[in-house]
Design a protein that fits this description.
3-stranded antiparallel β-sheet; Arc Repressor Mutant, subunit A; single chain; alpha+beta
Length: 91
């Protein structure tokens, strides 16, 4: 039961961070995509991304993907770990 409470608390903090940083629908969709495709919903798991491929998958321009990634990093939801290497941070 305690694990469920901790999981819900982490999700609540995560949702508040999304709201507090005024993320756009595109930012949230990108975050969800990164969580599912690259991180496998594992917090802290490092993954590399190719912004051009993501832009192509979402029919977006690469600068828009870059801007969303920068917003996600600034919000603390996405952690930069090097050149094109990130992890999801729900803490």
């Amino acid at each position: 039961m305690e694990n469920n409470t901790n999981d819900l608390r982490a999700v609540s903090i995560f949702i508040n961070a999304m709201s507090n940083h005024k993320l756009s629908k595109a930012d949230i969709l990108l975050l969800n995509y990164l969580m599912m495709k690259y991180a496998g919903f594992e917090q802290g798991k490092s993954f590399e991304i190719n912004q051009s491929k993501i832009a192509e998958n979402f029919a977006l321009k690469q600068p828009n993907v870059s801007r969303s990634i920068k917003k996600l990093v600034a919000s603390g939801l996405l952690k930069s770990e090097g050149l094109n290497t990130f992890s999801i941070d729900m803490s």
